[in-house]
Amino acid sequence: MVKRVHLFDWHKEHAKKVEEFAGWEMPIWYSSIKEEHLAVRNGVGIFDVSHMGEFIFRGKDALEFLQYVTTNDISKPPAISGTYTLVLNERGAVKDETLVFNMGDDTYMMVCDSDAFEKLDAWFNAIKRGIEKFGELDLEIENKTYDMVMFSIQGPKARDLAKELFGIDINELWWFQAKEVELDGIKMLLSRSGYTGENGFEVYFEDKNPYHPDPEKRGEPEKALHVWETILEAGEKYGIKPAGLGARDTLRLEAGYTLYGNETKELQLLSTDIDEVTPLQANLDFAIFWDKEFIGKEALLKQRERGLGRKMVHFKMVDKGIPREGYKVLANGEVIGEVTSGTLSPLLGIGIGIAFVKEEYAKPGLEIEVEIRGKPKKAVTVTPPFYDPKKYGAFREE
């Protein structure tokens, strides 16, 4: 069964392309990917990302449980704020990249990828049941994916919009810090966060979903539609545009961000004690807090000793050509890896991409080749982001 977000009907009416993504029918673009992309880079755009998964963890054992099933130290940030962290399988591979908010009062909200929430639901509950065989556990896990609305407002003018709508200067928040806010009486969580490389914020709240899998929970999304249209109306003076998943992907690629299912995944290599792709291979070791026990830690320690074998690298094309997922990467005529994500940068007008290559080639400044339509095309490895961070992105010089 194809899943649908609360405002699917609105998107179906206004978007030029709607198609299935990770099991959800989602808007891919409204005007064009390039136009929406540049609106976010230069002004502000709004994304409906209600297909993202959300879990609520409640109870005195919630923190200890989350510390064990994720890699980062989520005990450090105060309420209300979030931590970027990873969920690994027992052999070190990434089950998903997540954001965990400390909501206070022994309550945490996890935000995960749209195509991972079902397997995470099964994973967390299996671990919970296993622990409960040996003792009591004060923990409730609630899957809120179909109930939650999530809008992402991104771009340099998102700050002005947040001030106007909520009276908050998001630049005074640290990254992933959140505030409880209201818009026309609708309570929601506002977080300084995003997936575009730009400054911005995201809002979360509950509403009725006409396509909820539970018929008893279905209803008209009055809150979601009101908030969406209110933001669009307030953003008119800033040139706001609704943006689809097409622009979201090109924006995250320009920023150099990984995408679950492309760069991060678990390949289920059952014949080995170390699975792929691990956070060490995907340059995500900044999200690992080594001074605690967590699922997958032993495998990562083994991998650090043995070597990674292959590792992620960013590259930009020197020759004309657009790299795509699955294209071979070569050096000196030898295949050294393959592209996991690639596109034509709307901002730069050149091909850019991410690849996994032999470990010795995973550093910036090396000449490589990407096989495009059977022909090797010159490229060079770089340090992300692909754009000039002084001119674009969350920390541009104003």
TrEMBL record:
Enzyme Commission number(s) from the entry: 2.1.2.10
Ranges of residues in domain GCVT N-terminal: 7-292
Any one Gene Ontology molecular-function term assigned to this protein's record: transaminase activity
InterPro entries found in the cross-reference section: GcvT (IPR006223), GcvT/YgfZ/DmdA (IPR028896), GcvT/YgfZ_C (IPR029043), GcvT_bac (IPR022903), GcvT_C (IPR013977), GCVT_N (IPR006222), TrmE/GcvT-like (IPR027266)
Uppermost EC category: transferase
Keywords assigned: Aminotransferase, Transferase
Aminomethyltransferase C-terminal domain segment(s): 310-388
Cellular-component GO terms for this entry: glycine cleavage complex
Binding site for substrate: 202
Reaction catalysis annotation: N(6)-[(R)-S(8)-aminomethyldihydrolipoyl]-L-lysyl-[protein] + (6S)-5,6,7,8-tetrahydrofolate = N(6)-[(R)-dihydrolipoyl]-L-lysyl-[protein] + (6R)-5,10-methylene-5,6,7,8-tetrahydrofolate + NH4(+)
GO BP field: glycine decarboxylation via glycine cleavage system
SUPFAM superfamilies in UniProt: Aminomethyltransferase beta-barrel domain, Folate-binding domain
Function of the molecule: The glycine cleavage system catalyzes the degradation of glycine.
PANTHER family: AMINOMETHYLTRANSFERASE, AMINOMETHYLTRANSFERASE, MITOCHONDRIAL
Similarity annotation: Belongs to the GcvT family.
Subunit structure: The glycine cleavage system is composed of four proteins: P, T, L and H.
UniProt-recorded name of the protein: Probable aminomethyltransferase
